[in-house]
Amino acid sequence: MRIVKDIAELRAVLGEQRGSGHRIGFVPTMGNLHAGHHSLIARARQCCDFVVASIFVNPTQFGVNEDFSRYPRTPEEDARGLAGNGCDLLFLPDVETIYPFGAERAVRVQVPDLGDILEGASRPGHFDGVASVVARLFNMVQPDAAVFGSKDFQQLLVIRRMARDLAFAVEIIAAPIIREANGLAMSSRNQYLDAGQRAQAASIHATLLWMTGQLDAGMDSPAEIEAAATQRLAKAGFDPDYAVIRCAEDLSRPPQTGKERAVILIAARLGGVRLIDNLEWEPANAGH
Ligand code: PAF
Q1: CB of 133 closer than 6 A to ligand 1?
Q2: CATH numbers and ranges of domains, the chain
Q3: Angle (nearest 5°) at CA 130 between 248 and 108
Q4: Whose CA is nearest to atom 8 of ligand 1?
Q5: 137-163 residue pLDDT tens
Q6: pTM
Q7: Contact, 267 vs 118, CB < 8 A?
């Protein structure tokens, strides 16, 4: 696997690949890779001839009191994992390559409405940072397809919307959430949890399943399910941020229960660690 740090070299390598008629797949990451990331590489491999991953801990998507400085950085281990997992090129830019005029003064991409609710409301500016860095990376790599994990469901929608609105010729592929045996969604932030908290954190997935069970049973008041789920999380020792049922298209409103695709999203803190997870849900008679 080739490791490239600057844009000119990246473009030269990818130009050759494109010239050979190869389809380029891209998996942007912030590193500290786990099985969830490796599943994204595997997904890109399925549909592309040449797979590029990037590792860049993006300062503009972290709020002032968030974990940017302590975000785990493990580039050597990540590179070994990627090389062993079928990645062809690792793009490892430094901050000056991504933000040549400085991160503070950088041109920003905003995704109105969708970027302002839920995660965007809890973490103001977060999705501006995500959309801004992904737009830059798309410009640098110019992939045919890019793979994103569904764990960050709202991020996935933000990126789809950004790519469509800015006419990036890239297919956005959603890959399924990879979970630990107890249901906990894999995340780099799980390593901030001790063994007891990891076991406790399984309650998030259990609560999501309980909420889908309520929808399956025909319970047609999302607000009541959300209130009960929030209580369950609080009882299990979490400080819940939200537990909501939204239309899967743009998360802007509750779904028409029994009629349209929904997604259930939870964000909750456990001992100061903020965890997010979601489950998609379809009515039994969807499309009939
Ligand atoms: O999901 C992530 O790891 C990041 O938000 C992304 C998409 C790499 C942008 O920095």
Answers
A1: yes
A2: 2-175 (3.40.50.620), 188-278 (3.30.1300.10)
A3: 120
A4: 29
A5: 999 999 999 999 999 999 999 999 999
A6: 0.96
A7: yes
